[in-house]
Amino acid sequence: MTGLRDRIRAFLAQHNTMTLATVGEAGAPQAAAVFFAADDALDLFFLSSPNSRHSINLARQPRVAASIQADNQAWQAIQGLQIEGPARLIDSVTEMAHAVRVYAGRYDFLRSLLDGVDGGPAALRGPLASSRFYVLRPAWIRMIDNTQGFGHKEELILG
């Protein structure tokens, strides 16, 4: 049987959008959908404008929750991940290079823009140039898989 960490990696490889929940200035929850790419350590990288609500919230309070789920109308087939951990702006050159490799490896249409080569989608040049890479380092992941039985859940604690 495949281990939980491997099943989580496989699930992440099949999906590309996560809902990121942050804490607003007044303490209210705020959610935003972002494209992500995961590495082998299950770190989740995403691009965002530093002026977006969730980026401003992260600068103040790095604790976040996120969810990634498969679209499905049948309750017997519900599958998804619930994630908690810190998220932050990437500020080191080494980590930035890793984020670019992981993200460009996931999104072919962005590879040329991330590598600084002409020929990528022109509509993305401005928004991408003003965006920054962030990383969510999961401390806890719950995998929900109703294909294993209603309410089937498994948890992975990461150190």
Give a brief rundown of this model.
With 159 residues, the protein is α+β, with helices and mostly antiparallel strands. It is 30% helix and 35% strand.
Describe this protein with a few key phrases.
nine-stranded antiparallel sheet, 159 residues, globular, alpha+beta, 5 helices
Model description:
The chain is built from five helices and nine strands. The protein has 159 residues and is α+β, with helices and mostly antiparallel strands. Strand 1 (17-23) and strand 2 form a beta hairpin. Helix 3 packs antiparallel against helix 4. The mean pLDDT is 90.
The major sheet is characterized as: 9 strands, antiparallel
Distance between the termini: 23 Å
Radius of gyration: 16 Å
| Mass-distribution shape | globular
Mean pLDDT level: 90
Strand content: 25-35%
Low-confidence residue ranges: none
Number of helices: 5
Structural class: alpha+beta
In total, the number of strands is: 9
Percent of residues in helices = 25-40%
Secondary-structure element series: HEEEEHEEHHHEEE
What topology does this entry show?
Elements: H1 4-14, E1 17-23, E2 29-35, E3 37-38, E4 44-48, H2 53-60, E5 63-69, E6 79-89, H3 93-106, H4 108-114, H5 122-129, E7 132-136, E8 140-145, E9 153-157
